[in-house]
Amino acid sequence: MSAPSSPSRLGPSAVGPLSELLASCFHQDALTRWMIPDDRRRAELLPGFFRVFVELSAAHEGVLTAGDGEAVLLFLPAGAVVDEEALDGALSAALGGYAEAMRTIASLQAQGHPAGRPHYYVSFGAVRPGRQKGGLMSALLERMLRRADAEGVGAYVEASSPGGEAASRRVGFERLGPDLVLPGDGPVLRPMWRDPR
Q1: Distance of alpha carbon 91 from alpha carbon 120, whole angstroms
Q2: Is 4 helix (H, G, I), strand (E, B) or coil?
């Protein structure tokens, strides 16, 4: 297993492949299926959707990779300031008519987000099929958590799958508050928190 890369080393040429990796790994995720129900349209739109988040995290040195690009973790460090209007515009351009579903997800996430507690916020993580269950995601999470611990701040994630929840629990995250349930008996996001150590 290769060591996670430094977040400052993410070059422009890596944005596309990492966006494609995330799109592939999240194609059948309950959250993206709720957002874009049609399989073909989801396959077309997810790479652009994830490019927005890769670029956002990269701007804040919040991208870690491992396994020669076979795994990626996106996060925002404590104190990161996001231009919400620009983000909404980028997501609207990427998703077209599906942007409103993303706004619904974001609104629900805002309700569960821990306010007034400085923290690192994990947005997405993915490991290419065939490389899963080999410790790559745990290594990336641990690398991020060492940064958070050094700064004396917590970390927060909303797990959208059993695998994501299990990986988070392995590195010390615990459930925080009630699950976030999307409308129409939609998928569930599980808020999780880890105190600094």
Answers
A1: 22
A2: coil
Locate 174 and state its tokens. 């615990």
Q: What confidence tens digit (pLDDT) does each residue in 82-135 have?
A: 999 999 999 999 999 999 999 999 999 988 889 889 999 999 999 998 777 778
% helix, strand, coil for the chain, step of 5: 50, 20, 30
CA angle 102, 107, 113 (to 5 degrees): 120
Q: Which amino acid is at 115?
A: A
* Residue 190, phi-psi category: left (phi > 0), alpha (psi -120 to 50), beta (remainder): beta
* Range 89-119 burial, b when 16+ CB lie within 10 A, else e: ebbbebbeebbebbeebeebeeebeeeeeeb
Q: Give the separation between CA 50 and CA 15, rounded to whole angstroms.
A: 9
Residue 105 vs residues 2, 28, 78, 98, 186: alpha-carbon distances, Å? 34, 17, 22, 11, 10
Residue type, 116: G
Task: Judge whether 120 and 156 are in contact, CB under 8 Å.
Answer: yes
CA distance 158 to 162: 11
Biggest CA–CA distance in the chain, Å, is 44
User: Whole-model pTM?
Assistant: 0.91
Provide Rg for the chain, Cα atoms: 16
